[in-house]
Amino acid sequence: MTKFTVNGNPVHFKMPPETPLLWALRDASNLTGTKYGCGAGLCGACTVHVDGKAARSCQVPIGSIEGSFVVTIEGLSDDRSHPVQQAWIAEQVPQCGYCQSGMIMAVAALLKENAAPSDADIDGAITNICRCGTYPRIRKAIHRAAAGAADSGVPSPESTAAEAARIAPSLKPR
């Protein structure tokens, strides 16, 4: 049995340790905001935070994150108040929207590490694929989020977890 924390809730998965985190989240925890894109860690649709770092969940075996802290798009904020989510809305980033949860999670991790990224920093850190090609709006939203985060503070994984634990329904062990 693998144990770790998802969005502030302790979880226990009775799944083989080589099961990708993506499937544990989607199938066992019903957290479907994390999307399956390519299954090879290339597109980024499945990006979540593991111990505060962006990770492609299709490539993370659950056995490798025993005791870790995982945040999904559902745990980033309960009311779309995170600076990245606010910037996404303000800049009307989504077109089809499929890649957006992974993109938002990747950007939130970037801004935690670099509160004022340059275009080169963004290019190096955000390798997610948007098949609709909304990259100009994505870049504009990242800069807007960085400016907003500097004003309001990007929530830490710990504060996000506390908020998620307060509002999220308990996950049943599987």
From TrEMBL:
Region span, Disordered: 148-174
Domain of life: Bacteria
Classification via InterPro entries: 2Fe-2S-bd, 2Fe-2S-bd_dom_sf, 2Fe-2S_ferredoxin-like_sf, 2Fe-2S_ferredoxin-type, 2Fe2S_fd_BS, Beta-grasp_dom_sf, Diverse_Oxidoreductases
Keyword Iron: yes
Residues annotated as domain 2Fe-2S ferredoxin-type: 1-76
CDD domains: fer2 (cd00207)
GO molecular function, one term: 2 iron, 2 sulfur cluster binding
Keywords, ordered alphabetically: 2Fe-2S, Iron, Iron-sulfur, Metal-binding, Oxidoreductase
Record PROSITE patterns: 2FE2S_FER_1, 2FE2S_FER_2
Protein name: 2Fe-2S iron-sulfur cluster binding domain-containing protein
